[in-house]
Amino acid sequence: MQVTSVQLEQGSPLRLTCYTKGTPLIIRVILGTLASLAFLAPVVVLVLMLASGEGFKIRIVVSFLIMWSIGMYLTRMVLWNSFGKEIIEFHSDKLHYCCDYKYFQGNQQDIGRDHLLIAIVPVSETEQTSKLHFTNGHETIEMVLPIPELELIPIKARLAQILNRI
Description:
The protein is an alpha+beta fold. The chain has helices spanning 25-51, 58-83, 149-165; strands at 3-9, 14-20, 85-90, 94-100, 105-112, 117-124, 129-135, 140-142, 147-148.
């Protein structure tokens, strides 16, 4: 997944947002269809079991749990591929990181700002992409989305400049 834009928004708190370029529509449609099937399949099986007179069995509860877990995971994939963005907020005492799926947020993590180091970690030499890596010696946050190095170097310098003033 490629980053389409990276924004550094001044304010309280300072916010770094990486927006993704959506995947092709056909992939999202296939994932959405599979998610829908995962949600509907146990319901159809339950109706057929009750209609045939078999009664309620414990295995239907297990199938509901398994299939709905798969459905939730696929729904999360569809939302990430459609609306996904990474947000890092720089508060006075901590960094707050989360992945925004538009309808919910996941992978939330906080680390302290004491002795904070910002590093650029190469991802692909051929595409010249890297990730931002934040650490305070005890805890670490590494962004998921690869960012072109030409965009990342000035962002890192600007972040270091701003964070030294806060």
